[in-house]
Amino acid sequence: MSEQPESERPAPGVSRRGLFGLALGAGAAGLALGAGGGATAGVAVGRAREADASASAYEFYGAHQAGVVTPVQDHLHFAAFDMMPRTNRDDLVSLLQDWTYAAARLTQGLDVSASGAVGGPVQAPPDDTGEALGLPASGLTLTFGFGPTLFELDGEDRFGIAAGRPAVLERLPAFLGDDLDPAASNGDLCIQACADDPQVAVHAVRNLSRIAFGRARLRWSQLGFGRTSRTTTTQATPRNLFGFKDGTANILAGDRAGLDEHVWVAASDDPAWMAGGSYLVARKIAMMIETWDRVPLSEQQTIVGRTKAEGAPLSGGDEFAAPDFAAVDTAGTKAIPETSHVRLAHPDQNGGTRILRRGYNFVDGNNDLGRLDAGLFFLSFQRDPQQFVRLQRSLSSDVMNEYLRHVGSGLWAVPPGIAPGSFVGAGLFG
Amino acid sequence: MSEQPESERPAPGVSRRGLFGLALGAGAAGLALGAGGGATAGVAVGRAREADASASAYEFYGAHQAGVVTPVQDHLHFAAFDMMPRTNRDDLVSLLQDWTYAAARLTQGLDVSASGAVGGPVQAPPDDTGEALGLPASGLTLTFGFGPTLFELDGEDRFGIAAGRPAVLERLPAFLGDDLDPAASNGDLCIQACADDPQVAVHAVRNLSRIAFGRARLRWSQLGFGRTSRTTTTQATPRNLFGFKDGTANILAGDRAGLDEHVWVAASDDPAWMAGGSYLVARKIAMMIETWDRVPLSEQQTIVGRTKAEGAPLSGGDEFAAPDFAAVDTAGTKAIPETSHVRLAHPDQNGGTRILRRGYNFVDGNNDLGRLDAGLFFLSFQRDPQQFVRLQRSLSSDVMNEYLRHVGSGLWAVPPGIAPGSFVGAGLFG
Fold first, then answer.
1. How far is B351 from chain A (nearest CA, A)?
2. Selected residues 314-353 of chain B with any CB under 8 Å from a CB in chain A
3. CA nearest A84 in B: which residue?
4. Which chain B residue shows the shortest CA-CA distance from A75?
5. Residue B45: which of A293, A294, A309 has the nearest Cβ?
6. pTM as predicted
7. Nearest chain A Cα to B23, which residue?
8. Quick one: residue B201, left, alpha or beta (phi over 0 = left, psi -120 to 50 = alpha)?
9. Which of B363, B369, B376, B407 should one mutate to test binding to chain A, selecting the residue with the greatest count of A CBs within 10 A?
10. Both ends of chain A: CA-CA distance in Å?
């Protein structure tokens, strides 16, 4: 075992249920002797041995959770969980410990535990489900969040954490045009899994769901592809399913001052345990793409406020030119219409309000009318949820709304980064 | 226009509705003057100019349709269509011509028409929806199929093609354990879109659906990822969501004799217009992954008949060793159990019957119980559908069935490859 990298060893103080609790749960207690124990299989092929697990692996530990300013990966599996009835504070803490232990491994391209998919006793169910065997880390990040209901549900403080609840962590207000499905909204906990291989993201959510067995249950989940945001200077701006570039004016990972002002909770903000964290908003936005596709190009462009080809503001320049909202054409008409999306969402029109967007396109098959069930799974990180609220309210007069329907919504507090030996959100539990 | 590559020019004899019919459909007939006509936008940024469109582009024309023996791409968008009520033979032919025209372009990394997403009149809806602007061909293949109902629906020969119906093209028989959803089964036509970028596959299906407007309508569609099949000697065998390698003993692209015997319809087979074609079976197989995950490793392996780590047959050797079905252990027990999947599906146990598998994993979110709605979207190509029927019947005693539920099914005749200037299935229309 001396050849194992640091990340293969369970961190001190972290529950090892993630390591062998699954076998216990399946009634094979006598066999579950831990990684080094008893009747292990002859085969010992782990992910790290089949592939270069270090390829595109992001550091798990740090001041902030990964998956916020990390260059946006190609694929998403987002999952919201509810704690099971009659679970208590110890269950929640052990779950967060077990998730942390597993996430520290999965993000490094390792199986969910040291015995993993094939290295445990053959008479027991494997710890790891195995579909990522042989696949590298694939840039996997796992980002955890705590929803308002974790702190208080129907007036009850189930986990003794209500005192630590951020005052700003309230269910999002209703917005014009909301048509929310409770089965695709909210949740006590969330996990944002992003990776360059969808099988790796799905494997992570599946195994973290499995680890949660008896403590938390998957409430809803969403797959996405074709990131719609740009978070580094080198990433090209991808396109949403309206065919337009999306994320041009995003906050970039190198913009430390911008991130500190708009994304990361400061040490001076309340509560103290959230310092270095952020707030995550998810909105499942169905796009009426068949209707949009019948809109003339010129009208599509005035709705967005940018050209379709280059993504340049209609006031001129290239994609990255600042929009000139005062610019008028020879007839005196505003080059960028008052009701255009880019104007209504722009920081200059919203008192400097900015958010870090990290959305993905989705297609969930089609509906009974033969129309693709498609749209944008919008994700944004902000220092205060009111930043999102302000922008979303500003968009109430957005003519693009005619082609959108918000069908899912959620808000979660994203705890700060994790130190080796600790677990996500440890500061909340004192 | 002289700079345009061959594939940008409409092939002679092919309907140009795909080129400008969309604008007509939107009531802007006066503006739709074709690629070279009238009020074109100043911008002319096409996919081919933003990216190297030739990167990983497969030849569209040839003796066989692409997407059968092509090395399996990472992503799938499969779509089944029904012809609209009151459509006739001319509608069907024009649809196939328009689809062919568009597919010849899309697979080369081009927009759906020469004016595309941003090169047409700004006063008209663009021909192309635009979300693939800037993306390369990404290995896109588009494979078309004709279902039994295209030839005869409720006893009616809607398109005057019943005489050309292959005798073997009958709706698949019911199999033990079928729990088929009509909304995820069958269809007059199908398109298998495979690409290494899901946005490119989705873009193709979306635009082909749009071209079909008024003639055919999307019946159902399915996204998939993480191909489960191996079709070349160099592709590693991917894993299904049971965590096992899937596709080890597949027919390989280089095995000309095997393909001719098992996959391609021969010139001596009936009907003549299908020579060089194949038959495509799709099965949406839901996997009870939570239940599977509680099965001990040893039992998982005896159910499959292979080891989980290497995918080696339980009779010994490496992944590619031939299973020895006669091998017994010291107690006289068969090394590969009688009811194991590998034994029941193996050619040696089925009179030499083989099929070319090309399946994908899928995850469609989760159900009300918090379980991932996941499984295998099985796709196979065979010279005669009875090959699949034989193997599927053989699997009726497969103990793996306890963990599977077949929820979707379909069979289509896949016409041979297309010559420049012709269209898919032209031979059927004489």
1. 31
2. none
3. B370
4. B198
5. A309
6. 0.90
7. A294
8. alpha
9. B363
10. 33
Q: pLDDT digit string (tens) for B84-112?
A: 999 999 999 999 999 999 999 999 999 99
Q: Which domains does chain B have, with CATH numbers?
A: 71-154+186-225 (3.30.70.100), 237-417 (3.30.70.1030)
B120 touches chain A (CB under 8 A): yes
pLDDT tens-digit map of B119-141: 999 999 999 999 999 999 999 99
User: B151: which 2 tokens?
Assistant: 């030839």
The answer to whether B131 contacts A240, with C-beta atoms less than 8 Å apart, is yes
Give the ipTM: 0.89
Test A130 with B243 for CB contact under 8 angstroms: yes
Angstrom CA distances, B176 to A5, B183, B243, B387, B395, stand at: 49, 20, 24, 17, 9
- The rounded distance, in Å, linking the Cα atoms of A390 and A148 is 19
Contacts (Cβ under 8 Å, ≥6 apart) of B195? B73, B74, B75, B137, B138, B139, B140, B141, B201, B204
Spatial contact of A408 and A283, defined as CB atoms under 8 Å apart: yes
Q: Is A204 on the interface with B (CB under 8 A)?
A: no
Q: Please report the pLDDT score of residue A228 as a whole number.
A: 87
Q: How would you classify the pairing of strands B278-287 and A141-146?
A: unpaired
Assign A280 a pLDDT band (cuts: 50, 70, 90). very high
Which residues 249-288 in chain A show a CB within 8 A of chain B? none
Q: Which residues pair with B193 in a beta bridge?
A: B77, B142
